[in-house]
Amino acid sequence: MSEHVxxxxxxxxxxxxxxxxxxxxxxxxxxxxAIDVQLMQDFGLGAAGLGQLASMFFYANAxxxxxxxxxxxxxSTRRLLLMAVSLATLGTFMFGAASHLxxxxxxxxxxxxxxxxxxxxxxRLASRWFPSSKMAFVMGVVVTMAxxxxxxxxxxxxxxxxxxxxxxAVLLDGVLGVIVAGVIFLFVTDRPPGTQGNAIADKRHLQAxxxxxxxxxxxxxxxxxxxxxYTSLMNLPVFLLGALWGIHFLVQVHHIHRVxxxxxxxxxxxxxxxxxxxxxWFSDHLxxxxxxxxxxxxxxxxxxxxxxxxxxxxxxxxxxxxxxxWLCHKFPGAxxxxxx
Length: 340
What we know:
By secondary structure, the protein is an all-alpha fold.
């Protein structure tokens, strides 16, 4: 077997092992959608209180994303991943065992802190193990792993929580975090063999530039701001419909049964699982990023307008709308390049 084939397979093993953490994080991100009623009952919360508890994840995520990027530029990706998954797992156990709201909120904050490293780590590793011409497809596969986690957090988690209670379901979820840490420890390495000289060169380059000059170059590039804004806005349907309010929205606005609503939100993630690698390949094959992004934004706008403005849609119509909503934000690799 050629050295190239071995390196290629090793690259997939490393990248998929790291994306297992992305899978885990997306379970944490989306689990409120399945257990919201039980949480509101146990902690005596209304809709606003539940939203505040869920937002602890996003407060931490937003706060630590920038430091995560700085750390990943300068330190071992493997070690930072192990630290991050440990924080997320600890937070999951805290949340599942919480006897009061403050402890639950602290647990969610820790989960969000660890989650800040998951996608950036996958991008960092993929960029070292694969050529740039394959990045969109590789990141599509990484996103697929995340969406598998989102799918697990819908109907499967709801059924598990109904069977054993939300606390035991979340504690089992914490055990999964321990398994994720073991996989990362065993299989993730920072760079391909024989490329350690690149690590030394990168470190010297960063030292020569200095922190403030690096920061000014990043902040001064308008493509970074535009790419970040696009990604943030396109991910809103995932956070709103998949992570927290999707089932509530379908039950109260479109008047379908809760089980049917959970199946409908599950279809969102099934669509992304199919669409992410497919459009990653398409973007690489086309050699363009902006055109697919524009197409995705237009389709997303149309789908969301129908969901918001057309009353009493049938179950089949809702499923049909949720399934192709993968176009809303997943053109993998688009944010990684400014070329058109």
